Amino acid sequence: MSKNNNNTAVDIDTVDDITNSISKVDMSISDDDMPDRCANCGKEGGDSLKSCAACKLVKYCNRECQIAHRPQHKKECKKHAAELRDIALFKYPTQKEDDCPICFLRLPFLDTGSMFYSCCGKRICCGCIYAMDKNTNATSLCPFCRVPSPTPGEEVVKCAMKRVDACDAVATRFVGSYYHNGMYGLPQDDTKALELWHRAAELGHTAAYFKIGCNYVNGQGVDRDMKKAEHYYELAAMGGDIDSRLLLGALEQNAGNTNRAIKHYMIGVRGGDNGSLIQIECLNLDGRATKDDYTKALRAYQKYLNEVKSRQRDEAAAFDDKYKYID
Ligand SMILES: [Zn+2]
Ligand SMILES: [Zn+2]
Ligand SMILES: [Zn+2]
Ligand SMILES: [Zn+2]
Predict the structure, then answer these.
(1) Is 3's pLDDT higher than 90?
(2) pLDDT band at 160 (very low <50, low <70, confident <90, very high)
(3) Quick one: which ligand is closest to 160's CA?
(4) N or C, fewer C-beta in 10 Å, the chain?
(5) Distance 118 CA to ligand 4 centre (A)
């Protein structure tokens, strides 16, 4: 973590600017622009030169040249590698937000705002689940694929396992959680949970890294290790996971890096996390975040609300707390 502890306003536009600059950085290190001389011996090598894996700023003809050049390159390399890493870390996920496959509205951040159906491997919003229950009285039908929902218990696991065998990343993450919590007749088994979460993450569901990070914080199935926890939270965050931002922000805040903490919280707020908004509010109250930071956070949260709010979801939430989708 860098010792960046100033009080300047971090706006979401700045985060975007950083984000945008990644393409510039990438372009600046494209093969066309890279020096085609070895940084150590100066020999021209064309395609045979290998670039420094950490900073991608310089090229070498071989490992010997790289080692010989290391003392003078080390500082610049570390600095640039850290910059590249921060660009990736503070980039707001560019992939489209998850939408409900039925109403096509953005899925709420809050857990109770949607449910995972193991029959089709879809996450469906509380509004659509409620509408299905209300209109057909068929509480046991999946609102998306209309097959009878598996009854809680072994059947859920059997259904989900089929999706795991089909390499469904989301289902793999959920089965991991079933083991973590000892649900649906499965034994509580964190070793098994971690194995499934790692597999889910490798299959592209990077939010599974968040779960792994939590196990490192709590010492479940692994030794407690805050460094490793932070590493996995960062992997999750870079993959688009919003839950990780609140924890990463707290870690930076505790380390005195308020500016970096605010950047994490701001991304959390854009993703719909009310907890991150509260953190920015508190930092504003004690003078560590500017009024401008807080105003921008409020605006970002309002934008999120506009995207997730619907009459159907409001109706569901008013009917029962189990459909609550906004804090
Ligand atoms: Zn050389
Ligand atoms: Zn380098
Ligand atoms: Zn929906
Ligand atoms: Zn289904």
Answers:
(1) no
(2) confident
(3) 4
(4) N
(5) 7
* Ligand in nearest proximity to the CA of 103: 3
C-beta of residue 31 within 8 angstroms of C-beta of residue 56? no
How far separated are the first and last CA of the chain, in Å rounded? 31
Instruction: Spell out the domain ranges in the chain.
Output: 34-89, 163-238
Q: Which residues are placed with Cβ below 5 angstroms of ligand 4, an ion?
A: 117, 119-120, 142, 144-145
Instruction: Enter the pTM of the model.
Output: 0.81
Residue that is written with structure tokens 């090598």 in the block: 45
Instruction: Please identify, in words, the CATH class of the domain defined by 163-238.
Output: mainly alpha
The Cα–Cα gap between 71 and 48 comes to 23
CB 160 within 8 A of CB 130: no
**Ligand 1: distance of its center to the CA of 217 in Å?**
45
User: Cβ distance 43 to 60 under 8 Å?
Assistant: no
